[in-house]
Amino acid sequence: MSAEREFQIVPIVQEAVVHNSRTLLNLQSLTASLFGVGAGILGLESYSGFLFYVVCSLLTAMLFYVVRVAPTSLASDANGGGGAFDTSRYFRSQVEFWTGGLMNGLAGFILTWTLFYGLVRA
Amino acid sequence: MTWISKAITLFGAVLLGHACYSAQEHSALQSFKAATATLTSSSLAVASLPVDIAIETVIAITVILFGLVLGTRPLRPIQWRVWAGKIEREGEEGFMDNDGEVNKDFVGNPFKFLETRPGFVDIRKQRKEFASWVKTSSTQ
């Protein structure tokens, strides 16, 4: 009830939501394969490989925030004064923005990780 | 703008390919050494990756990542009021791709139906005109 009421007061443009999340998803799946290549070349195994992936995907989110979200989000006072690291101008959920890449690209990461590990250490 | 990100990505890909080739050659050399060491019974070399290849890999990944992030499409505000205000203020310029082309699904001003609706109609004047027209046609 309250969510519906809030949706009436602050309407959301669905096309913009889809556009933004698709842009982020494209970037995440591309970079996940890239990190797999890197982990395979570096020869990482088990936990250190997954740690590498977590760090790199957080770095991706950070860089995407700095390049695409921050310049307009910080300049406008219309985003509710969330301050730094606030993505509510472009994304509905903060958690999805910062940690969505961990789940979205994991399969691609493991695929290229194992492939390049096997290629380099043949 | 888009050629900058493509050039950065391409440069990083060249670095990554070189690092991959170097790592492969290194492991091949190590296995060759290990095979000959059993014959000559000399000491085994450490089989870990040389640090310059590791550094090159990390730098290549960072460069490609930077290029890919620069190549993403600009985002759009999701709140209706912010989105409509952006259209009002910037028009088509606010909804361009990196190539300088307007997005295909750009719909234009969402309040166009308010601005293009007909104004008020002076019904009394029209009635007077109609009455005079009836009068002139009936006299003829």
UniProtKB/TrEMBL annotation, chain A:
One of its GO terms (cellular component) is EMC complex. The chain crosses the membrane at residues 50-67, 97-120. The lineage of its organism: Eukaryota, Fungi, Dikarya, Ascomycota, Pezizomycotina. It holds the Pfam family EMC6. Belongs to the EMC6 family. The keyword Iron does not apply. The keyword Iron does not apply. One of its GO terms (biological process) is autophagosome assembly. This is ER membrane protein complex subunit 6. Keywords: Endoplasmic reticulum, Membrane, Transmembrane, Transmembrane helix. It comes from Lasiosphaeria miniovina. InterPro entries: Emc6, EMC6-like. It comes from the Eukaryota. It is found in: Endoplasmic reticulum membrane. It is a multi-pass membrane protein.
TrEMBL record, chain B:
The chain crosses the membrane at residues 46-71. It holds the Pfam family MMgT. It comes from Lasiosphaeria miniovina. The keyword Signal applies. Residues 1-19 form the signal peptide. The keyword Nuclease does not apply. Belongs to the membrane magnesium transporter (TC 1.A.67) family. This is Magnesium transporter. It is a multi-pass membrane protein. It comes from the Eukaryota. Its main location: membrane. GO terms for cellular component: EMC complex. Keywords: Membrane, Signal, Transmembrane, Transmembrane helix. GO terms for biological process: protein folding in endoplasmic reticulum. It is found in: Endomembrane system.
